[in-house]
Design goal:
Elements (H helix, E strand, L loop, with lengths): L1 E8 L2 H9 L8 E3 L13 E2 L1 H4 L9 H7 L4 E3 L3 H15 L4 E6 L2 E7 L3 H16 L3 E6 L2 H11 L4 E4 L4 H5 L12 H9 L5 H5 L3 H8 L3 H9 L16 E12 L2 H19 L6 E10 L4 E12 L2 H13 L7 E10 L10
Parallel strand pairs: 2-4, 7-8
Antiparallel strand pairs: 1-6, 1-7, 2-3, 5-6, 9-12, 10-11, 10-12
This protein binds a DNA duplex (18 and 18 nucleotides) through helix 3, helix 8, strand 9, strand 11 and strand 12.
Amino acid sequence: MAWVLHVDLDQFLAAVEVLRHPELRGKPVVVGGDGDPTKRGVVSTASYEARVHGVRSGIPLRVAARRLPDAVFLPVDKDAYDSASADVMRTLKEFGVVEILGWDEAFVGVDHDQPEVTARRIQERVLAETRLECSVGIGQNKLQAKLATGFGKPAGIFRITHDTWFAVLGDRPTDALYGIGSKTAKRLAALGIETVRQLAHADPDRLGAALGPATGPWLVQIGRGRASARVSDTPHVVRSRSREMTFQQDLEDWDEVRAAVVELAHKVAADVSPDGRDVARMVVKVRYAPFFTSSHGRKTQRPTTDPHAMELSALAALEAFTDRRPVRLVGVRAEFVPDDQGSAGP
DNA sequence: TCTGGGGTCCTAGGACCC
DNA sequence: TCTGGGGTCCTAGGACCC
């Protein structure tokens, strides 16, 4: 029988750092930003020793430092995690088709009557190869597997099936589901839908009218635990590349904002150059000091790989910003020409 | 003492065309 | 003294995820 396994490394960034710095084992370790907790930035990963003090992913580094002044703060080291992640993914490929979701998680499609046996072997093999611990969720589709992992952490294994879906998740709030965040949960609550079970019994057309024709029926489906079970190892074709930067002090001078856009546009151009693909559109994002974000984009004159053309379109997009208040973040994104007619026949 | 950086997908409205 | 109804493209923004 076919099963979907979801493998998720435990406290991945912190675990990689502990491997490099064994003296940190057992200590509260916080990875985020450039490692300076007095600067603007957020926690990427906190070790379990830090989490018990309320320091978890996504909180501001400054808040983390206040809650846990004695924690070890480390910068995000992308190359180190890329390398560790590649080791893990290579190991997973021994067990089946692997669909990579990020640095520290992947689906593995297996055909096995005892998926727990495979899950245990995966844990052992990953630990032996990389000295990293992982949790494994087992499901009849990707949604069940992904959610199961959370019940297995740390270093455990958990299975969710069509038969156990409501027993495990029925009474949980809707935002326990992958794909429902705080905003959608609020909108659902306004419709009287608080739990996964209530969502499963909602009328798809009613939700469609309230939340969009595709989104509404899809929400009911995930409430019922129904989702795709197809694990695909087809390499993902990237749609866009972006760079952004948050300033330590808000920029009040828009000449500096303009200079930042030029710099970021050139970085993005360098990032996309190895892809060799044509860029169709450039988007500039501005986050104002009160944390309100706005974006404007402009098509490039024609599909292009030319950095100068990308800069020109980014600057044209910047012209669309008429509100010249102080700025805390500037971002530039290049969107590739859609790649779906590549093999179109006559 | 606020709130990163890199992505994806969906929705909605206006323009434009037939 | 009237102004439908689709389809598609472009743009802005929302929401979500790791």
